[in-house]
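Morning. Coffee machine broken again, so started the prediction first thing and wrote up yesterday's gels while waiting. Chain of 194 residues, entered below exactly as on the submission form.
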Amino acid sequence: MQRSTYISTAAAVVLMVGGPVAAAAAATSGAAGTPSAATAAARADVDATGAAEAAVKHYPGTVVSLDKDGAVWHVDVIGKNGKHAELTVDTRSGKVFTEHADGDDGDNAQEKKQLLAAKVNAQKAVKAALAARPGQVRSVDWDDGDNGGARYWDVEIQPKGGGATRHVHVDATTGKATVSSSDSDADDGNDNDS
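Came back before lunch.
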């Protein structure tokens, strides 16, 4: 009986001192005072892999690129129907919005064919890049190997402790990740971002 009185008194103090925010935090705490899984998940941002998975669930197809811009991921997808879609994925909620979808443009037909034939997709490239260079992914871009070069994914990673971003090139056939020797390599193949 006395224990119930202490708990009730503590809850009343929390409500008076902290207001609704503290009450909500107390309500979602586990037995040991740690946040519940739902609370932790609500605070976690959607990462590159999560954004890619959400995008292809919304618009079935293959991811061409991902780019984090503040609180959203911009994701380009080639749909199973051959159409290109530009999607936005909210980093907090994971909700996907279609910004633009168009018909098959013949200018990039060869690039699309190579992308669709690649053994390593964007999600696998992210995993390989993070294994080679831990951190937070900022962007993922397909490079079709202009001028006869090898096709690869260019994954830009921000180190966990901060510092300059580094680019990791992931071979589209083997999945081998190679950390770029300098950031000057970062712009190779990204000239056609328009």
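Residues 1-43, 184-194 have pLDDT under 50 and may be disordered. Going to sketch it on the whiteboard this afternoon.
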